[in-house]
Amino acid sequence: MRSFPHAMLREIYEQPDALRRTLAMYVDGPSLDANAWAPVADWTNADGEVLIAASGSSRHSGLVAEVTLEDLAGMAVDVEYASEYSCRGGNPAHKPSVIVISQSGETSDTLAALREAQSLGQKTLAITNHDTSSMAREATVSLPLGAGKELAIPATKSFTCQLAVLYLLALYEGSKRGHLDANAVAARVQELGQLTESIDSQLEPWERQMADLAAKYRSASTFLYLGRGVHYPIAREGALKLKEASYVHAEGYPSGELKHGPNALVSDRVPVVILATVDRHSADSRRRYEKTLQLLTDLQAQKATVLAIANAGDEDVPRLVSDCVFVEVAGEHILPIAEVVPLQLFSYFMALEHGVDVDAPRNLAKAVIES
């Protein structure tokens, strides 16, 4: 058995098994486990309105869920910073169902948001990595993760397990609301299961490539991470991982916003990291991809340094960028689970390049219980 020098790298490698454990909690054979999802049957409000409150990486998984729940289940979703939601008050007449997401289930701002929603009579759903945590116990419904104990401060396996559970929730709600038939749900559940195997097979190649790229990019002062649609939150997550793990500044933006200001920063010292994957079975995904190719063409013309995450077999993206990392082809709404993993590895190796204790970066705690 391999020995890992840091908990963060070990936990990155544990993600396929963590995902398998999580899926086993909610999937029965080819489809969703009816018993596991029964508690969620009456959770949503009559209008299908949902508010997601979370912080840090958990908020980024919520932003992915916003797109997924809207696309697959036709729900109306908003995502709030938990720290803002718990302080600003709200409209007592407007009562969306509330999802709180937290690795620990004890994050103070998110717990305050849960309690605020409960006090207003709103139904709540907690997604945590600890099924006995305060959030899991106090929420109307709890959907725990099977990630297992996570020691490193930068979240890795808990994040991808959050994405998996939120995707399954979208399938459940999509089926319940008539947006997805049983065959569509079964096909998507099967694809999610296959994704865990795909990630497993790619981990070692990603590790080698990201170690080399971190050495190449170690002198960069700032990174701009870009993504469109459901991939934009992964750009934000990649930037956050880089900041908290390596102390290198980075910002995540929607790809279409680059020319609305941030492009002024792009230089030899400010590379661009762009998510350029595509689901060729989706017209919307293909349209976003074509726009991304045009942006890459423009960046090449201005001699920008660009690191791209693209589909295996893509021949267009590599010729437009400085470096390209490939992920296996997958559906639009589950690609984020795969494409975040090489970004986690990049932040890990950038931390090593900068001499950072990657498991315990300065000024940060695993669970923010005071704010």
Structure description:
There is one protein chain. The protein has helices at residues 7-13, 15-26, 34-37, 56-73, 82-88, 108-119, 134-138, 157-176, 182-217, 232-246, 283-301, 335-353, and strands spanning 27-28, 31-32, 49-54, 76-81, 97-102, 124-128, 141-142, 222-227, 249-254, 272-275, 306-311, 323-327. The model has no long low-confidence stretch (mean pLDDT 94). Helix 10 links the parallel strand 8 and strand 9 (249-254). It is built from twelve helices and twelve strands. The protein folds into two domains: 7-194, Rossmann fold (3-Layer(aba) Sandwich), CATH 3.40.50.10490; 201-353, Glucose-6-phosphate isomerase like protein, domain 1 (Rossmann fold, 3-Layer(aba) Sandwich). The chain is of the alpha/beta class.
Short structural summary:
This protein has 371 residues and is an alpha/beta fold. The chain contains twelve helices and twelve strands. It has two domains: 7-194, 3-Layer(aba) Sandwich (Rossmann fold), CATH 3.40.50.10490; 201-353, Glucose-6-phosphate isomerase like protein, domain 1 (Rossmann fold, 3-Layer(aba) Sandwich), CATH 3.40.50.10490.
- Give the CATH topology of the largest domain: Rossmann fold
User: Average pLDDT value?
Assistant: 94
CATH class of the largest domain: Alpha Beta
CATH superfamily descriptor of the largest domain: Glucose-6-phosphate isomerase like protein, domain 1
Which assembly state applies to the chains in this document? Answer: single chain
Total DSSP helices: 12
Helical fraction equals 40-55%
Beta-strand proportion: 15-25%
CATH architecture of the largest domain: 3-Layer(aba) Sandwich
What is the element string, with H for helices and E for strands? HHEEHEHEHEHEHEHHEHEEHEEH
Structural domain count: 2
**Order of strands in the sheet with most strands:** 4-3-5-6-7
| Rg result | 20 Å
The global form is globular
Low-confidence stretches: none
Helix and strand content put the structural class at alpha/beta
Largest beta-sheet characterization: 5 strands, parallel
Q: Ends: how far apart?
A: 40 Å
Number of strands: 12
